[in-house]
Amino acid sequence: MTSDSTTHRPVGYGTLASVWVALLILTAATVFVTRLDLGGYKVVAALAIASVKGGLVIAVFMHMKYEGWLLRGLLFLALVTLALFIGLTFFDVLYR
After folding, report:
1. Would you say the C-alpha torsion 68, 71, 75, 80 has a positive or negative sign?
2. CA 54 → CA 3, 14, 48, 70, 78, distances in Å?
């Protein structure tokens, strides 16, 4: 017997292909950003693009889009904590 909470929701090929194309475009944007002279903002731009790419992978390929609010909230809390620690590390290195 299968309950409603364990029902597998397949992702269509169109969705997978569009996410793949979006990841390719974002990869090209990352390469483009590295060629620009943005100073210290180059890292911020690259991390922002990487965050969007990671969000797409988590939402679609890891099926987080179909999980409940508690699991999504806990994942968001973990990612915010990680971003805070990385940001504080950059802040520490920047002002040494």
Report:
1. positive
2. 30, 19, 10, 20, 14
Q: Which of these, 80, 69, 92, 67, lies nearest to 6 by C-alpha position?
A: 67
pTM: 0.69
Cα 1 from chain centroid?
35
Q: Which residue has the tokens 């090929």?
A: 13
| Exposed e or buried b per residue across 13-40, where buried means at least 16 C-beta atoms within 10 angstroms of its C-beta | eeeeeebeeebeeeeebbeebeeeeeee
- Reported as a pLDDT band with limits 50, 70 and 90, residue 1 is very low
Mean pLDDT value of segment 82-93:
85
Q: Which two tokens stand for residue 58?
A: 């988590």
